[in-house]
Design brief:
Layout: E1 2-9, E2 17-24, E3 29-33, H1 40-47, E4 55-60, E5 63-64, E6 76-79, H2 91-99, H3 108-114, H4 130-140, E7 148-152, H5 160-175, E8 179-184, H6 187-193, E9 196-201, E10 204-209, H7 211-216, E11 222-229, E12 232-239, H8 247-254, E13 260-264, H9 268-276
Parallel strand pairs: 3-8, 3-9, 6-7, 7-8
Antiparallel strand pairs: 1-2, 1-4, 4-5, 9-10, 11-12, 11-13
Length: about 280
């Protein structure tokens, strides 16, 4: 669905995006992870045709992006981090207007219901909270049933309930065969949603793999456990693949004296820090 070869781009004389290469397969969720200013949004703008002064080759749905025409946007939906809505219009009026720009349209009430906004369909967007605007902006990207979705921080600023609702819709879109490119600094969203993730820092691609492969390649998971000894709580750790050799753990389990036990493994944030020296969040 997306093929990027030797991509280079700069806003100034100094290089910004340098020698970037990656492929996004049809039907997968591909995540760009990186801190603010890493180049995630710039890459999204290039892929969506908003920036065409790049060097190299960028193909989206077999179309070289710098030579796209208006039909290019019939098959892509874009949800930028900052909502682009008409605040003097109601949410339904916004959806009616934006759907009129496309040949294919989905049922507006169904989309509003999917993000919990149907009861607010006739309320002006200027009266919406930040989270409500974010949810409306998200379904605006779905109104023409595109095959390719570009989502920029889709859960930013949402409460846990609405964040879960948005992620479920993203997974539903994938189940329908859609391709989704997700830019985020949220490692938890990326781990849960993405088939592949790319680490971006300072305009460069630092790593690209599945979340699981990246995590498992960085060392074995650990098990930590606690127990009481001489009136004090003691905490021990052991590697998951060698807990059978931990005599203290075996003894505590046999005597049912464990206070707590849990496993842990590196997170995508841990790996990103290791590779770049910078944190995702």
């Amino acid at each position: 669905m997306i093929e990027v070869n030797n991509l280079n781009f700069s806003y100034t004389k100094n290089p910004f995006i340098e020698d970037m290469n990656f492929i996004v397969q049809s039907g997968e969720i591909f995540g760009f992870l990186g801190p603010s200013g890493a180049g995630k949004s710039t890459i999204q703008k290039i892929l969506t045709g908003l920036i065409t002064t790049y060097k190299g080759n960028v193909k989206v749905n077999n179309i070289e992006v710098k030579r796209h025409d208006s039909s290019f946007y019939e098959n892509i939906g874009v949800d930028f981090e900052f909502p682009s809505l008409y605040e003097k219009l109601t949410s339904r009026e916004n959806m009616v207007f934006f759907s009129s720009l496309y040949k294919k349209r989905q049922d507006i009430d169904t989309l509003l219901e999917s993000v919990g906004l149907l009861k607010d369909a006739d309320k002006k967007v200027s009266d919406f909270s930040k989270g409500m605007k974010s949810r409306l902006n998200f379904i605006k990207a779905l109104v023409h049933d595109p095959q390719l979705l570009f989502l920029d921080e889709p859960t930013a600023g949402l409460d846990p309930s609405n964040s879960r609702r948005m992620k479920d819709i993203i997974l539903q879109q994938k189940a329908m065969g859609k391709t989704i490119l997700l830019t985020t600094h949220n490692m938890y969203d990326a781990t849960e949603l993405c088939d592949h993730v790319a680490f971006i820092a300072d305009g460069k691609l630092r790593a690209l793999d599945t979340p699981r492969n990246l995590i498992m390649s960085r060392g074995a998971a650990k098990v930590s456990y606690t127990y009481m000894c001489n009136g004090k709580e003691v905490r021990n750790e052991a590697l998951l693949n060698s807990i059978g050799n931990d005599n203290m753990l075996q003894k505590l389990m046999q005597e049912n004296k464990l206070l707590s036990i849990h496993s842990s493994e590196p997170t995508l944030n841990d790996i990103f820090v290791e590779l770049t020296g910078r944190a995702l969040q």
